[in-house]
Design a protein that fits this description.
The chain is mainly alpha-helical and 288 residues long. It has two domains: 5-33 and 252-282; 51-247, Up-down Bundle (f41 fragment of flagellin, N-terminal domain), CATH 1.20.1330. It contains seven helices and four strands, in the order αααββββαααα. A hairpin with a 2-residue loop joins strand 1 (128-129) and strand 2. Helix 2 (43-97) runs antiparallel to helix 5 and helix 4 (173-191) packs antiparallel against helix 5. The radius of gyration is 38 Å and the shape is rod-shaped.
């Protein structure tokens, strides 16, 4: 078979472009520090990388949900703490007003403070987290207490891990309604000069029961807060592990990438040098 200059030139160009593509891939691998940038680079590692990235995205969303849940729970716990302080002060006033030796003028002063405590308790019942009312159940856009309880018992739940949710809100209908009504009752008894200290003392037991309920709910919120902290620590460890696995699946071995780049550079230079020797002079070269 006759070997023509055109055949030599075509073979040279094909080999040169092949080596040039290898040089481009080696350069790209080193500059990006990524072994896999497209599925065609390594289909198996690409599938692994996609799965890890999906897992990493889920972990990040769980961490965000837990952070939001912590904020919600912290505000709820603080509000319950304030409500407990209000009710404890109301109980002190009830104890002071339950004696028959106290003059009616002093009882009226106690009643006035009780009414102020009642208004403060209503403000606590309408506590917000951002623009959402935390004690209104799923009715978070409007105050849950407005001339009576307007909230519901709906649950607000956050997803904190696969198929695991936690309720972050505390519907306060039964809790706050009873407390607000009891303070209204106490103020009325203190203002009524026909009522004795014994009548006022009946409210003390109701306040004790309400206080126990508030303290129990605060304990539940505290337990959830501790659970969120443990879950956040666990997810932080999981996130680090997934990032390490993703790095192993995607990142290039820098030392090997440098060696490959130098090898491709040398191969390309050899191709060019060989081409300069292979391309034979033609008649046109002599006619110039």
């Amino acid at each position: 078979m006759r070997i023509t200059n055109m055949m030599l030139t075509n073979n040279l160009l094909r080999n040169m472009y092949t080596n040039l593509r290898g040089l481009e891939r080696a350069s790209d691998r080193l500059s990006s520090q990524k072994e896999v940038r497209r599925p065609s680079d390594d289909p198996v590692r690409a599938v692994t990388s996609l799965a890890l990235r999906s897992s990493l995205g889920n972990v990040g969303q769980y961490i965000k949900n837990i952070s939001d849940a912590q904020s919600w729970l912290e505000i709820t716990e603080g509000a319950l703490g304030n409500a407990i302080d209000v009710l404890q002060r109301a109980r002190e006033l009830a104890v002071n007003g339950s004696t028959d030796t106290i003059p009616q003028g002093s009882r009226l002063a106690l009643a006035q403070e009780v009414r102020q405590l009642r208004e403060q308790l209503i403000q606590i019942a309408n506590t917000t987290h951002g623009s959402r009312y935390i004690f209104g159940g799923t009715r978070t856009s409007k105050p849950p207490y407005d001339d009576g309880w307007k909230g519901n018992d709906g649950k607000i739940e956050f997803l904190i891990s696969p198929e695991v949710t936690i309720q972050v809100n505390l519907p306060g209908g039964d809790l706050f309604s009873a407390a607000i009504d009891t303070l209204e009752q106490l103020a009325g008894l203190l203002e009524d000069d026909t009522k004795s200290g014994t009548d006022v003392s009946t409210v003390i037991g109701e306040l004790d029961e309400i206080l126990d309920n508030f303290i129990a709910k605060r304990g539940e919120i505290g337990a959830k807060t501790n659970r969120m902290e443990r879950s956040l620590d666990r997810l932080a460890g999981t996130e680090i592990s997934v990032i390490e696995l993703l790095s192993k699946a995607e990142d290039a071995d820098i030392a090997r990438a440098i060696i490959d780049l130098k090898a491709q550079e040398n191969a390309y230079r050899v191709t060019l040098a060989a081409g300069a020797r292979i391309v034979m002079p033609t008649l046109l070269d002599f006619l110039r």
